[in-house]
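Good morning,

Both structures are done.
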Amino acid sequence: MLTNSRVLLGLISLACLSMIVVALYMQHVMYLHPCNLCIVQRVAFIITGIIAFIGVLHTNKRRLWASLTALAAAVGSLFSMRQLYLQGLPPEDVPACGPGLEYLFEALPFQKAVEQLLMGDGNCAEVQWTFLTISIPGWALISFIGIVAVSLFAAKRA
């Protein structure tokens, strides 16, 4: 049953939903303010989960939906790696902290705001929380890699 591509895509959808619930818990209960790259990773989890859920519903093209799910998760992993890179920089090399998300989109042209959002800033270099010495983007990266692996397996099984 766990080798059925529909079940695997359903589990991926649930995993993505779980990641968003955990992120919202950390933000609203633990009062950890998300940086710009954290928000981008959340969007990547949402898009990945939606694509996987469409794959659950769409019986004829599961291989396509599983492949698109893997692609979305792979893109999300790039943003996790970018944030881990920023967190690993020596303090003197960390970029300056930038404005908040709302200000970016109010003050800059859309393309420039998106560019700034995707690159991250000094706020993204701050490690606010760890579990087993792994920071939040580290756990996001592990999750994205797992989703890519399961998605590719589902694509193969479809």
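Second structure follows.
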Amino acid sequence: MNKIFRVASTSALLLLIFALSQCTPANDGKQANAGENSTENVQASMKVAYIDGDSLMSGYNFAKDVNEAMLRGQGKLESAQRQKANEIQRFAGEMERKYKNNGYLSEASFNADQQKLQKMQGDAQAYMENLQRTVQNELMMNTEQLNDSVDKYIAEYAKQNGYTMIIRKAATWYIGDVEDVTTDVVKGLNSRYNKVTEKK
């Protein structure tokens, strides 16, 4: 009797476990659907747009001016380097001709010109290093101002137009049905920049 009862109890317990295991997937499915719905609700409540950074920088007048200033600085460096190199080369050529034509009456006069040549080279190097620092500092300052103006405007633009997030196109792997506000932002940046200052 006890043996039959234990068998019946075991069978009932197995049936209960089986029944519960059959119910679990349905519940999990409901929870998964609830999670998906929650994610969809969050996404639906977000307003997202993107900006093409290359197009922004090629269309923003301040960015154009910064790029032109960089090119001018680079040209200034190259021009100064050529000028200093020509001066040194010219003096070195004069020394060589003078030496070949026995123009140096004493070793002291030759040494004096050699020291002058070395000083010219040292002065030229110091001048170029100083000029390079000046150009780099100007470029860094302009770049910081450019980035600051873009960051501030985009933050204001996002708030005014109700965007939760504005992303950079180049920083994403995939952009689906997301609004491109590049043209609108460039227009606003140029409008603000022209009102503040004019770059020559």
